[in-house]
Amino acid sequence: MHIELEKRYTFDGIEPNMLWNTLKDAQIIARCIPHAEDVHVEGSAIKAKVKPPYSFIRGRLSIEGEIVDVDDTTRQLKVKVKGSSIGSSFDAMLTISVMQEGLITKVDADTHGLFRTLPSSLIKKVTEDAADRFMSCIRVEIGGSAATTAAS
Question: pLDDT for 78-92, tens place per residue?
Answer without folding.
Answer: 999 999 988 889 999
